[in-house]
Amino acid sequence: MRLPRGMTRAKLIEAYKTMVTSRKLDDREMNLLKKNQAFFHIPGAGHEALLVAAGLALKPAHDWFLAYYRDRALMLTLGMSPREMLLCSVGAAADPGSGGRQIPSNWGLDRLNVISRSSCQGTQFLQAAGCAQAGSYIRAKDLDLPCAEDEIIYCSTGEGAVSQGEFWEALTVIVNRSLPVLLLVEDNGYAISTPSTEQYPGGNIAPLLAGFETLRVQQIDGNDFLVCYRELASACAYIRKERRPVLVRATITRPYSHSVSDDQKQYRLPADLDADRSRDGLLLFSKYLIDNGYSTAADLDVLEAEVVAELGALEKDVLAQAQPDPSSIEEHLYSAQVDITSSRFDVPPVSTAGERHNMATLLNRCLHQEMARDARICVFGEDVADCTLEENLDRVSGKGGVFKVTKGLQRAYGSDRVFNAPLAEAGIVGRAVGMSMRGLKPVVEIQFFDYIWPAMMQLRNELATVRHRSNGTFASPAVVRVAIGGYLRGAGMYHSQCGESIFAHVPGLRIAYPSTALDACGLLRTAIRGEDPVLFLEPKHLYFQPYCADADPGDEFCVPFGRARCVREGRDVTLVTWGTTVHRSFEAALELESEGLSVEIIDLRTISPWDFDTVAASVAKTNRALIVHEDTLVCGFGAEVASRISQDCFTDLDAPVRRLGAVDSYVGYSPVLEQAMLPQVADILEAVRSLSRF
Ligand SMILES: Cc1ncc(C[n+]2csc(CCOP(=O)(O)OP(=O)(O)O)c2C)c(N)n1
């Protein structure tokens, strides 16, 4: 075979050296593990020929990479050093991708544009879509963020992870928006022990993609370095020029077991393993070099011996490096530069007089003002745009969200900044993660809290973890707005749910849960101006209530996170609450006043963090505490508040801490059932009375 353009003998030998280095690193790391000096290993063996070729076709610190765990040879080709890899293996503090936090081969290296990857198989696809969309956006808006005109977003996967629904969600966005993404499916035939025939019909993803007409699909023999080099160079040239996606499915081998925890002899026949070994790309390439006179067996042996010796010396050095400081376990959960709990975000309203506006209106104004101020902000979600068909925009009044919170934003800021997403919640959050990792500020909407669950993986394992897992080298400061809760009469169990406690259990995620138009506006501005991922919960019962309306506080008004609001002062009982039940509690407190019971109401305003100090000061005064929330009782966030009060305010208490929440069931469609389910004023009255009698 003639050498492809640009390939030389020296480059062939260099490529071979990288492949050997990759394989020998696998061997060395497995050996470290045997000696208990490393703690996990997942090999890149069998994938080297394909990935060195990919690395040569792509440009480090120019293109962007979402590389999965088999991509060791790609990382070496891009410029990650063997020493850096060994630092990851031993979990050293100096591990450049995660500081000893992530298992080895979960690649991430900011200097090369290799975005921090989690261990979740399948979450990378939507992030790649977001990352690619961010590139177009950065260029269109001429933002001062790293971006190259002809950049490619590389996103790799095994053939198994392609079964994830998120793959298909992402493919829709990538193809519909014609994003410059190279999807590399590294098909080694097995997902741990499950053969690809079990993943999808026919066991080959390529023919199944025929309906995506504008997606170029290439199938290659991933064991043949020169074929890979030629085909990937062609794919990359096409993407750079045409700005269209390509999916390459490469067949390769897996000569080693899936990981250290696996033994493939348990589920593969010896003949199958032998066949794999005989097709091993590294072996085939050494044979090619010798057969075509580019090297000799003796020279390749010398090269291999040199690599082994070099890795041996590095191993000694790396083992002498320090493990992470135990105290660093709490680092990089939140931004150290922008502290949204600080008094910097305590900015008073310009005026409290004037026309009063409901919560939906003040949220909408805040979004308008922030979008005018910061071109990095883009808004997307289901039905958030005024009218997707732009040509009709002048002839319709516009949708702007099912609750109108985003109304007029598309008209004011354009369809590239405000757009409808497909009906796929993981797609909304996953894309936001990808965009925010490139410096944009997505403010996305989940239409109903009840439908947040498809996005749970992206919220829990991605959005919330990026900063921590990457040791602060990447961050994902997106804001996810969610309409939450019931008290709606007729909304039923799938438009009324709460569940803030589930997310309060997610370190790295900030949570707001305002109860007034003013707080909603101030907290949203803080969320947007901050650098942490925020789950912004908007009680939909309150969107249009005149009783929680407020005057426009101006375009700098902010409320810091973690600072509760004393709704009314009282002497006898501290009532801690948030969201819709703040107003029901207030109504109850007015009635109790006439009975001679004085209730102090604390509105937490944010769940993560929550303001324990204000609660504790109040309990020290009243000596009694009741927590009221709309969410169901068992494991509701009230349990956390109650436990903390019981533990840290014990000597102040004259009665056990009491909780009132919804019945542990589901909101019914019939108003009678809804009323029976959710805490009512009468329930609060009863709870306070019995607490005060204790
Ligand atoms: C969402 C998710 N489910 C399960 C796992 C556990 N797991 C890790 S790798 C793997 C198999 C992946 O197979 P494939 O995508 O074919 O890649 P390969 O390992 O063969 O290269 C599984 C099931 C995971 N990490 N993430």
Descriptive terms for the model:
single chain; 694 residues; alpha/beta; Rossmann fold; 3 domains; seven-stranded mixed sheet; five-stranded parallel sheet; 22 helices; 21 strands; 38% helix; binds thiamine diphosphate
Task: Characterise the protein shown here.
38% of the residues lie in helices and 14% in strands. The chain has a seven-stranded mixed beta sheet with strand order 10-9-11-12-14-13-19, sandwiched between helices. Strands 1-2-3-7-6 form a five-stranded parallel beta sheet, sandwiched between helices. The chain folds into three domains: 312 residues, Thiamin diphosphate (ThDP)-binding fold, Pyr/PP domains (Rossmann fold, 3-Layer(aba) Sandwich); 209 residues, Rossmann fold; 129 residues, Rossmann fold. The chain is α/β, with parallel strands linked by helices and 694 residues long. It starts with 8 loop residues before the first helix and ends with a helix. The site of thiamine diphosphate has 16 residues, from strand 2 and strand 4.
Question: What's the short story on this structure?
Answer:
With 694 residues, the chain is of the alpha/beta class. It is built from 22 helices and 21 strands.
By CATH, the architecture of the largest domain is named 3-Layer(aba) Sandwich
Query: On the 0-100 scale, what is the average pLDDT?
Result: 97
Q: Give the overall silhouette.
A: elongated
CATH class of the largest domain: Alpha Beta
Using only C-alpha atoms, the radius of gyration works out to 29 Å
Distance between the termini: 90 Å
